[in-house]
Amino acid sequence: MEVFGLMIIPASLPFTLGAMLNKRRQGWAIYASMMILFLIGLAVTLWAELQGNPLLEKIGFSMV
Q: In order along the chain (64 residues), what is the average pLDDT of each group of 10 residues?
C-alpha cells in the first residue's frame, strides 16, 4: 500500500490543480510533462545500470 501511495499521490496532484483552477487541460499537460520526464529518467537509469561497473569487471566479478 505504501508503494502504491508513493506513486498515486504525485500522479494525482496535477489533476487536483487542474480541478482547482477549473482548467482540467492544464492538469493533463502538467501530468504529461511529468510522465515524459519520468520516462526519460527511467530510460537513462536503466541504461546506466545495465552497463555494469568496469572496476568490478577488472577484478573478475560479473553480475551476469
A: 92 95 95 96 94 83 71
Asked if 26 and 17 count as a contact pair (C-beta separation under 8 A), the reply is yes
Contact assessment for residue 16 and residue 27, using Cβ atoms and an 8 Å cutoff? yes
Q: In terms of pTM, does the model score above 0.90?
A: no
Supply 56's cell numbers.
Answer: 568490478
DSSP 11-41: HHHHHHHHHHHT-HHHHHHHHHHHHHHHHHH
Q: Which of 42, 34, 33 is nearest to 10 (CA)?
A: 34
